[in-house]
Write a structure and sequence with these properties.
The chain contains eleven helices and five strands, in the order E-H-E-H-H-H-E-E-H-H-E-H-H-H-H-H. It is 39% helix and 12% strand. The longest helix has 14 residues, at 221-234. The protein has a single domain (5-237), classed as Rossmann fold (3-Layer(aba) Sandwich), CATH 3.40.50.300. Helix 6 (130-142) packs parallel to helix 11 (221-234). It has helices at residues 17-25, 38-45, 52-58, 63-71, 109-116, 130-142, 152-157, 159-169, 193-196, 198-201, 221-234; strands spanning 5-11, 30-34, 79-85, 101-106, 148-151. The radius of gyration is 17 Å and the shape is globular. By secondary structure, it is of the alpha/beta class.
Length: 241
């Protein structure tokens, strides 16, 4: 009999998704998995991401195989937490989503894009994951369920309150250990951690949200406008501190 509770956290990029993974790995009842569909996504799109060849070599690139072996495979703990980028769902059969608990992690589009532009030279709406986040939102609503949405600004404003609500929505007890972790890389980190995780590796827990005065790169205004409309669809469902 299946006893493992699978949690897929679907995120936009340059969010606090790695910190969220680190919070969940603090739980004794949880196994965490870092972006299992990343190599599939890169192989499918050819997107020029840092460490492209390393990522491709480090993971299975066939999406259905990843779903069967990794997402639906056996795990030794009662809970398994998958840190996922929503945009990695490209052209996949999404029926596995309904067999798990799903959390949508989002961020103010301007903040997300000004961070993402540090790592990617070309950015379109397809790089943001907002389209897929709203698609999961709509399918959840169509199935008569209430979406679970976490806005990173709310999370950083009061981690204990928001994580407590999140655990309650998932039918799990809150673990105070989710508020802190040790510095440095983690065994579960993907091979891409050296390109993307420097800030979280220097952290020991949730840092307060801080406004940043960073200009959006010229030409990204249409992406911001598209992202904002989709983000506004998610906001009414976000957990409040």
């Amino acid at each position: 009999m299946e006893t493992v509770q699978r949690i897929h956290m679907w995120s936009s990029p340059r969010n606090v998704s790695t910190a969220m993974m680190y919070a969940w790995r603090q739980r004794n009842d949880t196994t965490v998995v870092d972006e299992p569909l990343y190599a599939f996504y890169l192989a499918k799109t050819g997107r020029d991401h840092p460490g492209f060849d390393e990522v491709i070599a480090s993971q299975e690139t066939d999406g259905p195989t990843v779903i069967g072996r990794v997402l639906e495979g056996p795990y030794p703990t009662p809970v398994v937490f998958f840190k996922q980028m929503a945009k990695h769902l490209l052209d996949l059969d999404r029926s596995f989503i309904a067999r798990a608990d799903n959390v949508l992690l989002t961020r103010d589009p301007h903040e997300m894009l000004t961070s993402l532009q540090e790592n990617l030279d070309e950015i379109t709406i397809d790089d943001t994951g907002f389209v897929e986040l709203v698609e999961i939102l709509d399918s959840t609503l169509a199935g008569g369920r209430t979406p679970v949405v976490v806005d990173s600004r709310h999370l950083l404003a009061d981690p204990e309150a928001v994580l407590g609500q999140l655990c309650e929505r998932l039918g799990l007890p809150f673990d105070v250990g989710m508020l802190h972790w040790e510095t440095g890389p983690k065994p579960e980190d993907g091979i891409w951690a050296k390109y993307w995780y420097a800030k979280v590796h220097s952290s020991t827990g949730w840092a307060p949200w801080q406004a940043k005065d960073v200009a959006l790169r010229p030409g990204l205004e249409p992406v911001l406008e598209q992202s904002q409309m989709l983000y506004d669809r998610l906001r009414p469902y976000s957990l409040e501190p």
